[in-house]
Amino acid sequence: MELYSKRKKALENPPTAYRYDLPIEFRRQVIHILIDSIGYTDEPLVTRPADFYEDDIRRTQLIHGNYGLILKKFCDEYGLLGLPGIAQGAGPCEAFAQFFQIAETVQTLDLIEIAFRQLPSSIEKLEIMGMYRSPIQISEATEKLNARFREHAIGYRLEQGRIVRIDSEFLHKEAVEPALHLMFANGYEGALDEFQRALQYYRQGADHYDDCLTNCGKALESTLQKIIELRRWEMPGKAKFDSLFAEVRDKGLFPSAIGSHIAELKKFLQAVAVIRNEEGAHGAGSVPNEVPDHLVAYQIHLTGSAIVFLIRSNEGYGK
Question: Which of 95, 124, 153, 185 is the most buried (most CB within 10 A)?
Fold first, then answer.
């Protein structure tokens, strides 16, 4: 049930664009989602009252252990021995909740990604011991997280275990999301990894835009390679866009309705490679290229659309 205060706020302040900071209200709401998923405890790790039941002790240890593992993975990634700004005596649950509210945006996003990837094993540990029943399932937790992103007009989503940045809800749902699902479901592991890398670089900002463009181009080429592999066609000696496209075109991959427009189709698909070559894959010389944000967003959506088209064309081949 949506509270009146939220409906009123939405009517008074309709979101006109996405934001990319994480307000404190959002951070606390994510903590509540994790509490609903894997629990939370204020009990210390070592000291116990005399009448503390053994099952309660084990449950407390497991919950602390789940949060501790999330923080351990985070510290490993950032090369930290402990969380900055958090007292050493704080238990894993308390340390996570405190740090999550004060961390930099990119750190918080990484914590969300690590925590949600960890949910299956975290919940399983508790349920196997028969000491905890998660009030919500993993899919529901993900839906709630993405609903909170939308509610605050924050331009991120959790997709296939990765936080991705979005600029248009419509384009994300029509291009990026279907591409991720199709690659995951049909065994396009290489292309999926490269496209997810592109999305991750995009999330990290302007310093990584050239890497984003490069991985978009790689994902498109890997998709074409995978189709050729699945069809057992001849893999070109030079597995670059032009030769890969020529192979699938000559084998009749594309719908006959395209007819004489095959050249225009090539230009559309080739735009991914062209932008990559112009902006991201070559040396910048004495003056570094400044890749504009809107061009990178266009490239992301263009790549997603191209991958969806290619995989769907392969599904319909010969029908």
Answer: 95
Q: Contact 55/83 with Cβ under 8 angstroms?
A: no
**CA neighbor of 289 nearest in space, from 281, 300, 297:** 281
> Does some domain include residue 163?
no
Tokens coding 110: 């990484």
Tokens 């899919």 belong to which residue?
139
| Nearest partner of 222 among 307, 163, 295, 103, judged by Cα | 307
Which H/E stretch holds residue 63?
Answer: helix 54-78
Q: What is the pLDDT of residues 26-80, one digit of tens each?
A: 999 999 999 988 888 877 665 555 444 566 677 778 888 889 999 999 999 999 9
Residues 6 or more apart in contact with residue 70 via CB below 8 angstroms: 96, 111, 114, 115, 118
3-class DSSP state for residue 130? coil
Range of the domain at 285: 168-315
Residue 180 sits in the same domain as residue 260: yes
Beta-carbon-side half-sphere exposure of residue 227 (alpha carbons within 13 Å):
30
Same domain, 123 and 246: no
Nearest Cα neighbor of 250 from 274, 228, 268 is: 228
Residues 178 and 211 in one domain: yes
Domain end call among 116, 151, 186: 151
In sequence order, what are the beta bridge partners of 19? 154
Q: Are residues 50 and 122 in the same domain?
A: yes
Neighbours of 234 (CB within 10 A): 10
The pTM score is 0.60
* Residue 74 and residue 155 in contact, taking contact as beta carbons nearer than 8 Å: no
